[in-house]
Structures are given as structure tokens and as C-alpha cells.
Automatic annotation (TrEMBL), chain B:
Keyword Glycoprotein tagged: no
Coiled coil ranges: none
GO MF annotation list: kinase activity
Name listed for the protein in its UniProt record: Anti-sigma regulatory factor
Pfam family, one: HATPase_c
Keywords, in A-Z order: Kinase, Transferase
Organism: Peribacillus simplex
Gene: rsbT
Length: 336, 133
């Protein structure tokens, strides 16, 4: 109890100093006492009682009614005292939740990890940053025995923990696809059935899947309502949208997807993204796809991984370091 | 159990009577003003719940003396509808008043021991104790 006694002494000193001479110095002491009380979990009703006792000591001749009024005040402050305790316990709970989410985020990170394939024909850069702790975006690379490279990028509508949980399922569905089924349209069709079957009907997933074959330099792709990427044609220096039509995953289990083909020439780039990239909000509103193309051009001389890192950093800065949605950007650059 | 006294809770004014009884006993036992106010507030919350949710019931106050330790025990009892999910109502922020810092979790914090027994359709019994330091 000697912390409490010490605190009572401090309160007594500060109060009597203030009552002698109403100056800012003494009030500053009051503020310091307030912090100290909070630190030692002293609740408001105790402070009022302390105040009353001090007044009785300092002014024994004080009218009884004045002193009684403090008992009334004490009663009124009881609710605040309980609210204060509740606040402390909620704060503690929040801390626990935060720690738990951090652990979950690490688990998710390990779970969703994908290795970026290393082949001469293609330079690959990928970055995925969650807006909050857990990521509702997902990307995935696979390389089959014929050296073909599959790339998937998916985005759950919504963010945070529910979105992240949903993504883990996509990852497992991808992993269990048979080797020979890596044709983009059949990948999307299989995943669509899994999502339709297993995911809450209020949750939708957009996804883009592409397959690059280094032998004939063909890139085939299909999209399930995913934000269109870009294609950079090195010969003309032009960027175009990587358009592909298709319904979101999970809407209708009979959905068929169309597959598109492109021949990738030396220096061409395939840019895939989640809507967290195009929905970056700056002070002037959403960024335009033009702005994004500008950023890509500015960083084009770099290596693919440096490109995505730099573009992320520049967009992060443009929106004052506040990500509103999970951000995923993938660049494939052809070397042959 | 040297002393026990009971107030029937039928209308809102009985809450005041229960508070008064609790405060008197707390004073007699030598609780300070802060603890008196805490005990009274807890009684108020329990009695108010009886009045609101069970219609009627009782609040008894008991003086305790165990191994030289004195304490005050509140027993709030009713044959009302009971509480379906006790764990839920003991959660912070669950009260219908939106957690304005009161309710059952609040009453629990104000006391040292808090025990709640409730059977849906049969009634509720809450025993709460505060020890004199
Ligand atoms: N004696 C009782 N009999 C039946 N149900 C009760 C009883 N006491 C509490 N409850 C139930 O438990 C809930 C929580 O009670 P609690 O006192 O914590 O909050 P509240 O009464 O809803 O709001 P307030 O913060 O105003 O007290 C009540 O809404 C009521 O449904
Ligand atoms: Mg209540």
C-alpha cells in the first residue's frame, strides 16, 4: 500500500500548493498526478474520496454540506469508474487479439509462400502487400516438367481476416490440381467449382491465370473477372490492356472460361495486378491506369523484381503511406 | 451467518431500499466511503436486473466473518426467466445499454468474488462478496 500512501501525499502537497496560490505550476503538478494515477490504476471514485479527505484536513472548518457534496459526486463517478476498468480490460483483450492476428499473419505467410521460378527466358518480379495484417490477395507460380510456367493471381472481394482465410483455400485447390491440367481455362474452371462449393456465397474471388511456354513463347491466359493487366509490346513501345472476359469464381459452378493467346517477343512485358494497385487513392482521387503506365515506363530499365518494388514504393508514397486494399503486382519480362 | 437481512424487489423503489440496506451494513462493517459506493452500485445493478428481467425477487445482505476476515455478501435471487448464455452476458460490452460501464461485468469488477447460477425457465441466483481490507 505504500504506492497509494505516496500518491496521497503527492496529491495533498499539490492540492495545498494550488489552494495557496492558483498558478500554472501547481496545475502542472496536477496533470502529472493524473498520469501517475492512471499508471497505478487508481479509479475516479478513489480520487474523489482522496480529494474530500484532503479538504477535511486542510480546512477543518469547511461547511459539512460542501463535504457531503463529494459523497454525491463520488456516487455519480461510480459509472465512470466501472467504464474505466472495462476500458482497461478491453485494452488488454485488444492487445491479445493483435498478437494473435500477427501470429496468424505469419502462419498465412508461410502457408501461401510460392517460389518464383528461375528460367532464362523470363525475368519475374512479384510483390504482395496486405493493407492490414492479413492478405486477401494471392499469387502463385508453378513450373511443370516441360518448363512451362503457370502464374496465378487472385483477389478476394473484401479484405482482412475473412478474405485471408478464403485465400488459403485457393492455395490448396491450386496445389491439388493435376499436373496436366495447367491450361488456364481448365484451372479457372476447376477452381470455380471449388469456390462455388466451399465458400460463403457472399464471398467472391477474381482471378487471372496465365501459362507461359518458353519453347514457342506463347502466353495463354484466362480471367475470372480479374482486374485486367497490361501487355507491353517492345517492338512498338505500346502498352495495351490484357483484356479477358470471364465471370468471377464462385458465382455459377457451370461457368466456362475463354482462353486467349499471345506470342511474347524479346523485351515484351506482362504486367498482372490486383485492384489494390489501380484503386490507389491519392489526394486527386483514384490513380488512372495512365499514371500506372507512366510509373512502369519510368522503371522499365530495371530488373523485374526491382521494378515491382520501386513501383510499390512510389505508389505507397503517392497515397501517403496508407494502403486501402491489398496490393499485388507481378511483372514478367521476356528475355528471348 | 450471524446476520442476514433481506429486501423484496417488486417495484423500482425497492432498489433504493436494497441500496440503503447494503450501505448500512457496509458502514457497520467499517468499509470506507469508496467501498460503500462500490457495494451499493453492485446491489443496484443486481436489483435493477431483477426488477427489469425477472419482475420480482429478493436481495439479501449477509455479514461474513471467516478466519478473522470480515466481509459483506450480496445474494440476489429470483424465479424469473433465467439467463440463457451466462458467458455471453459476462463479456465486456455485451449489456443492452451498450456497455455504459455497468451491468453484470461491472458489478463483478466492483466486488471481490462473484458467482452466478442461472437456469433458463427457473431463475437466477447471484452471490457476490466484498472483503474488508
Ligand atoms: N435476473 C435476471 N434474470 C434474467 N435475465 C437477466 C437477469 N439479469 C440479467 N439478465 C440478462 O442478462 C443481460 C445482461 O445484463 P446486464 O445487467 O449485464 O446488462 P443490461 O441489464 O442489459 O444493461 P445495463 O448495462 O443497463 O445493466 C440482460 O440484458 C438480461 O437479458
Ligand atoms: Mg442490467
Amino acid at each position: 500500500m505504500d504506492i497509494r500512501e505516496n500518491m496521497e501525499k503527492k496529491y495533498h502537497e499539490a492540492l495545498s500548493t494550488y489552494l495557496k496560490d492558483q498558478n500554472e505550476q501547481a496545475l502542472y503538478q496536477g496533470q502529472k498526478i493524473s498520469r501517475l494515477h492512471i499508471k497505478y490504476n487508481i479509479s475516479p471514485e478513489e480520487i474523489i474520496s482522496m480529494h474530500k479527505n484532503n479538504l477535511m484536513e486542510l480546512y477543518p472548518e469547511l461547511p459539512g454540506k460542501v463535504l457531503d457534496s463529494f459523497d454525491f459526486l463520488l456516487e455519480v463517478m461510480m459509472g465512470y469508474g466501472i467504464a474505466y476498468r472495462e476500458h482497461q480490460s478491453l485494452r488488454h483483450q485488444q492487445q491479445e487479439l493483435k498478437t494473435e492476428i500477427e501470429i496468424a499473419a505469419n502462419v498465412q505467410h508461410t502457408l501461401l509462400e510460392t517460389e518464383i521460378p528461375d528460367i532464362k527466358a523470363l525475368e519475374i518480379g512479384a510483390i504482395s502487400v496486405p493493407a492490414r495484417q492479413m492478405n486477401g490477395d494471392y499469387y502463385h507460380f508453378v513450373q511443370d516438367e516441360n518448363e512451362r510456367i503457370g502464374v496465378g493471381i487472385a483477389d478476394v472481394i473484401g479484405k482482412g481476416i475473412p478474405a485471408a482465410l478464403c485465400m488459403s483455400m485457393i492455395k490448396y485447390a491450386m496445389d491439388s490440381l493435376p499436373e496436366h491440367r495447367h491450361e488456364p481455362k481448365s484451372v479457372l474452371e476447376s477452381l470455380n467449382r471449388v469456390v462455388e462449393h466451399n465458400v460463403d456465397p457472399s464471398m467472391f474471388i477474381t482471378m487471372f491465370y496465365g501459362l507461359y511456354d518458353p519453347h514457342d513463347r506463347q502466353f495463354s491466359y484466362a480471367s475470372a473477372g480479374h482486374e485486367p493487366g497490361f501487355y507491353y509490346d517492345a517492338a512498338t513501345g505500346a502498352f495495351s490492356d490484357l483484356d479477358a472476359k470471364g465471370l468471377l469464381l464462385g458465382v455459377d459452378k457451370k461457368t466456362r472460361y475463354r482462353q486467349y493467346e499471345k506470342t511474347v517477343n524479346r523485351g515484351d512485358m506482362i504486367i498482372l495486378l490486383s485492384d489494390g494497385v489501380t484503386e490507389c487513392r491519392t489526394n486527386d482521387g483514384f490513380i488512372e491506369r495512365e499514371t500506372l503506365i507512366g510509373l512502369i515506363k519510368k522503371n522499365m530499365h530495371l530488373q523485374a523484381q526491382e521494378m515491382v518494388n520501386n513501383i510499390y514504393k512510389q505508389l505507397e508514397k503517392m497515397q501517403n503511406f496508407q494502403l486501402r486494399d491489398d496490393f499485388t503486382l507481378i511483372i514478367l519480362k521476356s528475355n528471348v | 451467518m450471524e446476520f442476514q437481512s433481506c429486501v423484496k424487489i417488486i417495484n423500482e423503489w425497492d432498489i433504493v431500499a436494497a441500496r440503503q440496506l447494503g450501505r448500512n451494513v457496509a458502514k457497520e462493517l467499517g468499509f470506507g466511503t469508496v467501498d460503500q459506493a462500490r457495494i451499493t452500485t453492485a446491489i443496484s445493478e443486481l436489483a435493477r436486473n431483477i426488477y427489469l428481467y425477472a419482475g420480482q425477487g429478493s436481495v439479501s445482505i449477509e455479514k461474513l466473518n471467516i478466519n478473522g476476515k470480515s466481509g459483506l455478501k450480496i445474494i440476489a435471487e429470483d424465479q424469473g426467466p433465467g439467463i440463457e448464455d451466462i458467458r455471453r452476458v459476462m463479456e465486456d460490452g455485451y449489456t443492452t445499454s451498450g456497455g455504459l460501464g455497468a451491468g453484470l461485468p461491472g458489478a463483478k469488477r466492483l466486488m471481490d468474488d462473484f458467482d452466478i447460477e442461472s437456469i433458463p425457465g427457473e431463475g437466477t441466483k447471484i452471490i457476490a462478496t466484498k472483503w474488508l481490507r
